[in-house]
Amino acid sequence: MGIELVPDLAIAADTVLQVGYEPGAPTDVINSLTNPAIILGALAGGAFGAALGALPAFIFTGFLVIGGSLGGGGFGVDVGFGPVFGPHISFAGGVAAAGYAANKGYMESGFDYHNAKDIGFALGSKPDILAVGAVFGIFGVLIEQLSRQLAVPVDPIPVSIVISAIVVRAVFGYSIIGKVSDKANGYFDMGPFERGEMRDPGEVKGDGGKESEDRLAVEPWLPNMYKWSHVAAIGFFTGLAAGVITYNMISGGHGLIAVFAGFGISAASLLFLNLGVDRIPVTHHMTLAGATAFLSTWEEGILMLTDLSAADLTAPLAFGAAPALLFGAVFGLFSALVGEASQRVFYAHSDTHFDPPAAAIVVWTLVIGLLVVAGLLNWGVWIPGTGI
Length: 388
Description:
Helix content is about 55%, strand content about 0%. The protein is an all-alpha fold. The longest helix has 26 residues, at about 320-345.
């Protein structure tokens, strides 16, 4: 099994290994983590995310992925998900830097929530802030490469982002899971936000600009997109749209790289959110789910992208285009709901950013990976260890 910074997608479409799951080897981990290009790239990328802010750095990833997927060669996707610009490096580094800067009282960004959640705020060139981003960039790539090279059947990038967010809280003295206000009926209750209720004095820590009583009792990740019906609807339709985009691109000869086009479009669209446009939805976890689940079950697409025959596809979850598109839409909906559940538990009552899309991608990629391991799916498309 060869060492890879990110999946070699252009080659993967033309390579037949096996149908099912193939585990990695410990030697692959050692070789990847002693590669100076990976470590030094992560060092620079974490500092880059700290300087720009986590969200602007992720938007940059989105544009790279759009260019790579639409161009068909894959270079932009490899760069967007690799050392320097990969979200587990630049985005996670930016999240860590915001947690550090808010804890030191540097930010006072005017954000409605705790400043450590303000991932759209650029933190500039202060050396200690850049150093925090750089350190977490290295940490992010270490976790990602460990998961990837061992071929754990889950997307290693959001695994790294989730673990990094938890470590930020532990290192800089924030509550790991947050404190539910007495005004809320448990983690899932968004009612105090709707009523505009505030925290009690001394209930939670301030951020240099706001005291506890200046903070909302519940801080939903997206104030315009937290109702279950709204989240389910956007998840279904964006998952379906991403599947259709993938179908059209692969039918037109773009190859396996097309599966990331919807993700790139969703990530790049966050430019408008960062610019303050109201009610922009966050959908990259939904579009990636829709496209991946569609392509994992579209029988004709699998045959187009590999050297296999129909007789080689023995798993039961293999469909024509229309059922596969609906399968993708359902996974888009599933990802949206998982993301919403994770924000209610890990974001709305906490002080720092925890990324609901990353948590959602961890869950649904693990589901697809386990379906491959169980023999119910023929492949997991790009998920480590599940290719054909």
